[in-house]
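For the sake of transparency, this paper describes our internal protein records without simplification. Because each token names a local backbone shape, the row as a whole describes the fold. One such record is reproduced below, unchanged from the form in which we store it:
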Amino acid sequence: MTQQEAINSITLALRKVLKRDGFEISIDTDLSDKKILDSLDRIVFLMELSELTGKEFSEDVDLVKIGLFKVANLADYLTGARDINQFFPNV
């Protein structure tokens, strides 16, 4: 999957979850900070995105805290450029 295909999948999943158009995202968008998705929408969004892409999202990890709702990070994860473990800060 290319970065553009990942962004297209993110946009499609957002449209399905929010049931509307009229929002704009870019590689710099944070879906959580910009209040595009609330906590319930985030769960449904990840299920939809998983169905579209075949990628799994762990329920045991705070995905907001590790920055996975930032479009750039999410695209990196979807394309395989970064593994989920690479989002955790070094301790």
Observations:
- The chain has a mean pLDDT of 91.
- The two ends are 31 Å apart (CA to CA).
- The domain at 3-85 is CATH 1.10.1200 (Non-ribosomal Peptide Synthetase Peptidyl Carrier Protein; Chain A).
- The longest helix spans residues 3-18.
